[in-house]
Automatic annotation (TrEMBL):
Binding site for heme: 448
Membrane topology term: Single-pass membrane protein
One of the GO BP terms on file: lignin metabolic process
Organism of provenance: Triticum aestivum (Wheat)
EC number: 1.14.14.91
Name the UniProt record assigns to this protein: trans-cinnamate 4-monooxygenase
Gene label: LOC123053304
Record-level GO cellular component terms: membrane
Subcellular location: Membrane
Amino acid sequence: MDLLFLEKLLVGLFASVLVAVAVSKLRGRKLRLPPGPVPVPIFGNWLQVGDDLNHRNLAALARRFGEIFLLRMGQRNVVVVSSPDLAREVLHARGAEFGSRGRNVVFDVFTDGGQDMVFAAYGDHWRTMRRVMTAPFFTGKVVQRHHAGWEAEAAAVVDAVRADPAAATGGVVLRRHMQLMMYNNMYGLMFGRRFEGLDDPLLLRLRELNGERSRLAQSFEYNYGDFIPVLRPFLRGYLKICKEVKDARLKLYKDCFVEERRKMLARFKATDSHELKCGMDEILEAQRKGEINEDHVLFIVENINVAAIETTLWAMEWAVAELVNHPETQQKLRREMDTVLGAGHQVTEPDTHRLPYLQAVVKEALRLRMAIPLLVPHMNLRAAELGGHGVPAESKVLVNAWHLANDPGLWERPGEFRPERFLEEERHVEAGGNDFRYLPFGAGRRSCPGIVLALPFLCITVGHLVQNFELLPPPGQGMLDTTEKGGQFSLHILKHSTIVAKPRVF
């Protein structure tokens, strides 16, 4: 290591100690900070709690310190909220005050400092991006217009699994087929495009780049440079890779999809054609009017790839795994569909509103296995008060939505996969945030608009699979392994399960 750099690093660390101690004392005089483990200079609580601030670890800390507590991760303040009342304050009652996003050094790279919609600071840019994205993607009219295509994609999954002779004996990795389906659903909605099969070269490139983005963003490897800024020079190599992946993804979106659609629109205009519009047409019209720029167009595509495709796919995997591991629930769901729709009648989106047990299964999967268990981090730009405690400016505020939905003090037997709860004692609870114990899509200003698509996708897909197959663990395995794998704020299954799919004969 260069001696001059080492000398500067040591001086920086010493200065960080002095600043941290001084700031801590000043804040302590002005603010009654939330409780939490005692921090040490420079590192704060990082060495005590480690890198993985997952939902279960934070729930354990909430049992020790209460419904609101503070962690000092190096020089970053992290405030964790674990009660419905405080969740309501952060997300709804004072949503503007806590409405910004707590990004980190890697998400700053992938979003160009919050130029997208998901990680934008609360303000005019976020409002514009949310408005521009809502009409073409996140309304009931979109569901009415496109659900037949989504049903056809679910039927294509069924056909592909039926055509695989190994599926009924050794099993098949259903996730691969559901992933193709989700790309076709969303790229059809965005661009009027679909991929013909799992080996489509363009699909393979998309999956590769999107997968690498998720790995880099959700890793804990870079925490040291995010928590302690003086160590950030050691992240240069990591951040360089992140930038290369970001640039490659945006170039792929632009060259292969956005520009192709732009050319197609020009041909339609030249021939006065009235072809069915897709979502990107409205996005490009907003760009033409000067409401957004070219980078914003590409970040809208980026957000759809991550926030719509990936998270919905994780939720599908969890729902299918729970049904495999609970055959009595699977059989009960199958009976409902056979009784209400008739054996062999393939479920449609309008049908799902007549299938309360199907809806309860989806709700229960989202409760027990939330894809984003801590929601996307919130941030207060100015010092605030919450639950009788002071919250320093620019704190990352985490709402432990998984804990709220799995707290034995709030739910009956929360550790069980029991869809019946949403037909019995919790029958009035909906996924849209009407009860702050249950927030799979958040609530308030920064709630996930994708709920409009995610619930139909989940109901249609789960319905088609259970209607057409008996879903079982692979030979010699009593249950599927549902070990969790978490990231910075994601939750998915560690191993993509092989599932035996025995076709039903109608």
